[in-house]
């Protein structure tokens, strides 16, 4: 992949990692219940898990798009419709 694509993927992943969600509540709960070390270990474990998931999703989509070049347009349109649905 090109450098611009890697930067784009990294930016999206960083934005997702910075937004609080249910995982933030788990990290806070474990920190309050077990102390700083348990909170740090929970955060590291969560980061590793999300990293594996994100890599699998990115590389899976790359394989599909490489195998079916015309699928790129379909995936883009489908993703746009999904975002529109979420916005509504």
Describe this structure in words.
- The protein contains 4 helices and no strands.
- The two termini are 33 Å apart.
- The mean pLDDT is 86.
- Helices cover 89% and strands 0% of the residues.
- By secondary structure, the protein is mainly alpha-helical.
Overall pLDDT level: 86
Number of continuous helical runs? 4
The radius of gyration over CA amounts to: 17 Å
**What characterizes the major β-sheet?**
none
Strand proportion, as a percent range, falls in under 5%
The total of beta strands comes to: 0
- Summing up helix and strand content along with how strands pair, one would put the structural category as mainly alpha
Uncertain ranges: none
| Helix-strand sequence | HHHH
Helical coverage, percent range: over 70%
Large-scale geometry: elongated
**First-residue to last-residue Cα separation:** 33 Å
Short description:
With 88 residues, this protein is mainly alpha-helical. The chain is built from four helices and no strands. 89% of the residues lie in helices and 0% in strands.
Topology:
Layout: H1 3-18, H2 22-34, H3 36-67, H4 71-87
Helix pairs in contact: 2-3
Keyword list:
single chain, 88 residues, mainly alpha, 4 helices, elongated
